[in-house]
Amino acid sequence: MVLELQKPRPIWQIMFSTHHTDVGLLYLIMSLGFLFLGGALALAIRAELFLPGAQIIGDAMTFNRIFTVHGTTLIFLFIIPFASAVGNYFVPIMVRYKDMAYPKLNAIAFWMIPPSGALIWLGFADFTWYATPPYSIISAPGPAADMWIFGLKILGVSSVLGAINFVVTILKCKHPDMSIGQVPLLAWSFLSSSLIILVAIPTFAAALLMLLTDRLGVTGFFNPAMGGDPIAYAHLFWFTFHPEVYVLVIPAIGMMYEIIPRFSRKPIYSFNSGIFAFVLLSIVGFSSWAHHMYATGMSFTEKTVFMVGTLAAVPASAMHVYNFIATMWNGRIKFATPMMWAVGGIALFFSAGAGGVANAAMPLDFTTHDTYWVVGHFHLFVMGTIAFGSIGYLYYMYPYVTGRMYNEAMGKIHFILSFIGTILVFFTQHVLGLYGMPRRIFDYPPIPEWIAMNQIASIGAMIIGVSMVIFLVNMIYSAGKGEPANPEDPFGVGGKYYYPFEAKNPSH
Amino acid sequence: MGGHSNWPEWIYVGVVVAIMCWVGAEAWEAERLVEHVPEGAEIIKVTGQQWFWTFEHEDGTKEIGELHVEKGKAYKFEIHSTDVNHSFNIHDYVVLMDAIPGRVNTVWFAPTDVGEHDIQCREYCGLIHYNMRGTLIVEEPHS
Ligand code: HEM
Ligand SMILES: [Cu+2]
Ligand SMILES: [Cu+2]
Predict the structure, then answer these.
(1) How many CB atoms lie within 10 A of CB B110?
(2) Which of B27, B50, B122 sits opposite A370 (nearest CB)?
(3) What is the ipTM of this complex?
(4) CATH number of A11-502: 1.10.10.10, 1.10.150.20, 1.20.210.10, 1.25.40.890?
């Protein structure tokens, strides 16, 4: 049996293990820890913005540090490690191999993350998640800024190591009887996102080093006072991070591909269009990075090129939505907790994409850029789609990880509150953007529309906060006291799961 | 995974592609018109610095935090920064352009009504970014 929490083991045995399910468990627990830490910062931000004037956060600098660490934490220390947790648990099983291709490398990639997390949290930098020069060079206080740079540097290396491991595991270690076309879509999602990482990350890794030497004053790559160009940084950053948004979302879509057919009790509508859309997205995702830079003074031609590149990626995302709906169509759907999260996530994915199209259309972007609209836009992805898919999948793998069932009623309440909260926060933020409220502001003038929208958003955030407490209680309580799960069919929907309850963990 | 026909999916993808083409074409056309600066637009030099805006008119008069313009005239902003990146924004007139040290970016507008509008900074620039605000005052034509 591979049910980690079933049989008590000394904690160091898990910590020093290189077995994929143990490393998966480490990733899982750490990423959830950061979810709650980062979420707490979000609640502080929303409490502060409930009314104009200083509320609970005394000064602007603290506020700026809080939103910087909030974003950095949830993207790099929750979303990405959570996907690695899922990949570690499931990819080897799906390709029918005994472990990841390089188990030691796998453990090393994991253990690089806690030190980076510590650097980011102990430093508490203030220069936003994209550390734009020249602010980040001449103005951002150290050592926080430098610690953030080192933290991200280490995270980048960890990502690359993890990506190499997934690519090799899937392409080289899959069972000889299996063709690549038989590899399940969840594993395909890891293959696609890992390939994106390998192409995208080195650019930012270089930019980070240049930023560091600029800060030290020995170079002036991005420092106009030394003849450098801050726009060069923007290109390097977004060349990595637009593709990176697909790195974030593709595994979550993969998780939905596991959940939706299972709970619809039907095979996936089109396996091939799922693969096609993943691969297409991974390639076209590289053609749109400068849609973040329309207002930097790009020429009309440049803007047009990047708008077309952005719009070109939309059909691939739309194909996933179609695939999900066609799979559910006429299915005998069981709305267990994981299914509710997945379906909610798809609905929000769709709304998020629609907002993205508006950003991409150049004249409209001058209304939305760097306002709360953008905050709403990407949170519908990172929270509404990616966190929803991930949390749904966490409920789905819960019986596999703990050997017990979570409490279904609490799971559903968690979903309903989070869904309502997400709509309240992030739809209203789109409206706030249209009213012109800039993002990243500690305080705002008492404009009645702004106050009203901010209050709705803050209430929504508190609702999400409450739901997350229910979630935490459910996870902890059920791990010890939940009903024992039926390992072959924990959700009573029949069919074949990728739960290798017979798989061997050598340390059991 | 055979068994079902694929034509509804093709139609769906076709519709999405068509919508994207339409959005792209409309955006291209609109942006092309918006970027065309009218003849004889008056130049206003805009300087962003931590954390206030300075304006310099063609006749050399300077203003800080407030910008007086005349209704019905066209103005071209030449925007730059002396320290870090900022973004010059008059939301009511959809004026938005980054102020970047070492560069001059331009954008134009023509106020249509007498009144006051907020000017703000829309790119994070540090401690007082939240209050890097100003006022646009549109007046009746002087002459
Ligand atoms: C697939 C998941 C997606 C994620 C995770 C995502 C994430 C993000 C993030 C984080 C930002 C803001 C970056 C920042 O300024 O801090 C952003 C902005 C933007 N996104 Fe997305 N996005 C996704 C999909 C899309 C799609 C499908 C489109 C277009 C069809 C799109 C178009 C844009 C545009 C144009 C901006 C720039 C907005 C601006 O700053 O003015 N995004 N996105
Ligand atoms: Cu992007
Ligand atoms: Cu600013």
Answers:
(1) 13
(2) B122
(3) 0.94
(4) 1.20.210.10
